[in-house]
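testing teh design pipeline on a random one, pls ignore if ur not involved
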C-alpha cells in the first residue's frame, strides 16, 4: 500500500511512504515497482537511511544490492569440504559473480538507540566490507535528527505483541512520521510492520 504526505507527491511534505506487512528483505524491496513519480531518481543509486537500524541488516542488504554483490560471496561453505565437491565449478561461478560487481557511491546511515546493538551493527557492516560506506550512530533518531533530502528511508520499527506495547508504540510511530515529514523531504520511505493498525499513526495520509 502506498501512502503519501500532504498535497501529493509533487507538493506538501514530499515524502512517499510504502508500507509492507510483516517481513520483506531488501531484495524484495528492490524488486518492487519504483516507477511512480515519487521515485524520480534511481533509488538504487541514492543514499539509504534507517532511523531504527537494529543490527544493520536492511542497510547492508541495500548497499550490497547497489553494488550488485551477492550475499555470502566470500563465505566458506561446509559443502566445500565434501569429497565430491566440484571446486573448479564453484570457483568459476564465484569469479563470474565477482566480475559482475559494480562500483557504487551509495552510502548508508543508520541510527540505533541500544549501544550494544549499534556495536553489533558496526561489526556486521565491517564483515560485509562496507565500513567506508555505512555509518552507524548510537542514539535516538528523535534526538540525532539525521536530515536527508532524497533517496530511500527503509526501516522496520517494532510492532509489539501485547496491548501495553502497542499503546507505547503509537507514540513512536507518530514521532517517526514527524521525522519523515520534517527531516526527510523528497525521500521514499519503506516501513515494515506486522501491525497494520500502527501504520496510521505515522500520520501520512493518502
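output:
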Amino acid at each position: 500500500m502506498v501512502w503519501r504526505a500532504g498535497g501529493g507527491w509533487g507538493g506538501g511534505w514530499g515524502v512517499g511512504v510504502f508500507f509492507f506487512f510483516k517481513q520483506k528483505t531488501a531484495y524484495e524491496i528492490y524488486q518492487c515497482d519504483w516507477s511512480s513519480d515519487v521515485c524520480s531518481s534511481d533509488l538504487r543509486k541514492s543514499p539509504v537511511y534507517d532511523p531504527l537500524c537494529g543490527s544493520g541488516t536492511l542497510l547492508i542488504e541495500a548497499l550490497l544490492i547497489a553494488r550488485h554483490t551477492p550475499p555470502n560471496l566470500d563465505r566458506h561453505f561446509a559443502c566445500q569440504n565434501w569429497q565430491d565437491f566440484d571446486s573448479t565449478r564453484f570457483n568459476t561461478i564465484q569469479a563470474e559473480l565477482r566480475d559482475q560487481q559494480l562500483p557504487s557511491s551509495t552510502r548508508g546511515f543508520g541510527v540505533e538507540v541500544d549501544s550494544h546493538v549499534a556495536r553489533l551493527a558496526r561489526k556486521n557492516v565491517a564483515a560485509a566490507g562496507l565500513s567506508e560506506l555505512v555509518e552507524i550512530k548510537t542514539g535516538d533518531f528523535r534526538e540525532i535528527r539525521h536530515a536527508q533530502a532524497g533517496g530511500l528511508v527503509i526501516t522496520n520499527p517494532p510492532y509489539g505483541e501485547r496491548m501495553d506495547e502497542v499503546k507505547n508504540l503509537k507514540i513512536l510511530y507518530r514521532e517517526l512520521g514527524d521525522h519523515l515529514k520534517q527531516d526527510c523531504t523528497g525521500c521514499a520511505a519503506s516501513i515494515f510492520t506486522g501491525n497494520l493498525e500502527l501504520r496510521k499513526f505515522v500520520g501520512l495520509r493518502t
